[in-house]
Amino acid sequence: MKNTLFALWLTIILLIIGCEAKKSNIDTFNKYISAHNSHNVSKTIKCFSNNATFELPGQDTLLGIDKILSLEEWDAALNSNLKVSSFVERGDTLIVNSIIERNDLFKNMGIDSVVYNPGTRIVFKDGLIKAIKPSPLLQESRERIINKLQMFMNWAKLVRPDELKVLLPDGKFIYKKKNAIKWVTLLKEWRTWGH
């Protein structure tokens, strides 16, 4: 009888601990989204472990808190807003089924928002984000960005070639706050030319 009560008590404790751990991951994720959308970089970065990774489709994976901090500063400068709905938990991973992003970069390209394919994975360790593995954009969103970006690039190669080389060395984005601001400035100029 004592062994049965002890086993029952132990099971209850483990269930409570397990629920708290899951709640902690969801709480961390919700805190991250809230801080990201309010552009509070110091709060967003507290949601990540020091050796976290952020995989960027078509770009290099960001390794470590300093690189992720630069990305969060970039997103804050662009007034990024993520609308997230419908996710499921699988162990220490949240799988997000719906993400819509708006930011000033897209806005100044003439794009209201972009939609990501389902399947973005947020991996946690000890209640902090260990890795973010975004799914690619939906084909329609990707095509709109490529189309607008190509039109902008054609213009920038003629009108602002030096700035373009700084912003896209080796054809890759450099995620820094000052670069985000420069992108928006150039896109606004491009739009004044009737694009």
What does this structure look like?
The protein has 195 residues and is of the alpha+beta class. It has one domain (2-192): Roll (Nuclear Transport Factor 2, Chain: A). It has seven helices and seven strands; from the N terminus they run ααββαββαβββααα. Strands 1, 2, 3, 4, 5, 6 and 7 form a seven-stranded mixed sheet that branches. Helix 3 (65-77) packs parallel to helix 7 (177-192) and helix 5 crosses helix 6 (161-167). The longest helix is centred in the N-terminal third of the chain and has 36 residues, at 2-37. The radius of gyration is 21 Å and the shape is globular. The model is unreliable at 5-22 (pLDDT under 50).
Which structural class matches the secondary elements? Answer: alpha+beta
Q: What is the averaged pLDDT score?
A: 89
Shape by Cα distribution: globular
CATH topology: Nuclear Transport Factor 2, Chain: A
Task: Provide a short characterization of the protein structure.
The protein is α+β, with helices and mostly antiparallel strands and 195 residues long. It has one domain (2-192): Nuclear Transport Factor 2, Chain: A, CATH 3.10.450.
Outline the fold blueprint.
Elements: H1 2-37, H2 41-45, E1 48-54, E2 62-63, H3 65-77, E3 81-90, E4 93-102, H4 104-109, E5 114-116, E6 120-125, E7 128-133, H5 139-159, H6 161-167, H7 177-192
Parallel strand pairs: 1-7
Antiparallel strand pairs: 1-2, 3-4, 4-5, 4-6, 6-7
Helix pairs in contact: 3-7, 5-6
